[in-house]
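Loading example: each entry is read as two labelled lines plus one structure line.
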Amino acid sequence: MAEQSASDFGGAIDPQIFKQVQDDIDEDIKVRDEIRGLLKSLDKQERSIQSVLSRVHAVPASALPTLLASAKPSFDQQREILKELGTVASKYPYYKYNGLWSKEIQNASYGIVLAGWLGAFTPADEKPAEGRLMTIAEVGEQLGVRVNVKDIDVFHLTLEEYLHSLVTLIEELARLAVNSVTLGDYQRPMLISRFVKELHAGFQLLNLKNDSLRRRSDSIKYNVKKIEDVVYDLALRKLVSSSTAQPEAEK
Amino acid sequence: MPPAGSKRPHPGGGHRGPKAHPHPAAQTHGHQPDSNTAGVPAVTGPYIAMFTEFRNELDEHHDRRERVIKASRDITAASKKIIFTLQRLRPTALSVRTLPQNITAEIHTHESRVQQLLAALLPDLQGINARRYVKQYSPALQEYLEAVGFRHYLVSGEVVSFEMAGWYVSGLNADAVLSVEKSGSSGDKPPESDVEMVDAVAEGGEGEGKEGGEIPAKEEEKLHGITLTREDYVLAMFDMTGEMMRFAITSIATTPLAQLLPSTVADASSSDAKNTGGGKSTPQTLLQDLRVLRMAFESLGLGNTPFGREAEKKLEVTRQSVGKVEYAFYGMVVRGSERPEGWVADAGAAGEE
């Protein structure tokens, strides 16, 4: 260990001492570039999924099946890229490079939970319907990645990333509640209201630290309020039957 | 009641679906599962069970993180004390490759603390979590390595190798590390501690089970040690140059002028290195070594990674440190002749430590 040959300088420090360091730095940069390349194509698919799904604000519920079907090719490609990313990423300790893809995998998870809420990915024995929460396991299944791994060191979707995607879902649903009314759909805001409140109750159980998830989940209550306002407006004007509005509001 | 009236989402009321488990039986994590909801009416809803599980998991994560942060803070503090202790050395007191006993004894106290804290970290850093809290503990590792590296340099005149650095911070080698320390300070042993140090390190590195602690070995055998990253190692070595600079400045101020004159500086590189095997940290060798380190750092292609950016900043500090020592030499050469012959800044205190 202490065998570094003395240099020709007055001191005994070998100028070559950091040679191995350079190799490591170069390798690290190479890996980061490779991962970034994959994230770029992943991001492209995610944006394409988002742009398809965002049409939900402008089309009636009856058009949903077609809309969801048109997002399928992007979902398929996204899964392919994630598979590749998983192969590359799993060669290294998970927590070495996880900061690189955290945003992209949150977006990927969000695409799934939104599509799932709209009725995609329904189990074969159930009738497709709006308002379903994709569990973290289901999201992982659709993305083709492992979830919340604790025992082995591989690429996966973390619990926090999944929760982030749920916060984004809530934000999107608040917008959808408003736009559904514009489209003349007065029932969907009721559904959204109940769903978001239930999810909010879940988030309130969490002891979050002062991190980004904490800040984002703090914003859920504003979305709850926004949705409640929509429900209130509808109920006040008797646009929804009180039997529909009341139980939702009571929740 | 108007629907918008109830701002607080269902305080306990309604919707007792079949899936709602206000107190899920599946609380196997055994870690105050319901402490949070205890005072509140049971919350129910379809996602409560799921989120209760999430909560337990996040709590475990936050607890681990907290523990790592606390230990890291303490490691940093103890490591700083080691560095301060080393800075109290006077070069004249630094006979080749041995630290005075009072210094090693003092360091031993702080280093036992560091090793104890490192070992205590291990349970939280197993498996996939090995790197999960790197951000939390890497400043502590860097600080400790700065201390280890500085001591290693003072004693041997060399930069501690990555492998040896990793051995020090693994958290598994407490006993071996500390016995190396003791052998330096123990009065019974001959002061050839450098040889012993190398031997002990080599042994410890291979068979920490043998020597590395008979008492904790059984318990910790299953635990993996902390893996030092190349990044932390390099950043620690950057920081070490700052300590070398401080030490060099003190040395210059306390070295008799005759030994700093240009003729001696020129000679020092050859004669000094030969006489002492490069182990003695005279101001001249310190300056030469700082220059070599600066050059070695500068020749690294750092890249635009988080590490690269941090290293870039530290490189600038290293440049300044080298500059300060160079300027100190310059000052001695230019103004030194104005000193009375034989005058030394704190000759009285020089032999003290």
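Chain A is about 65% helix and 0% strand.
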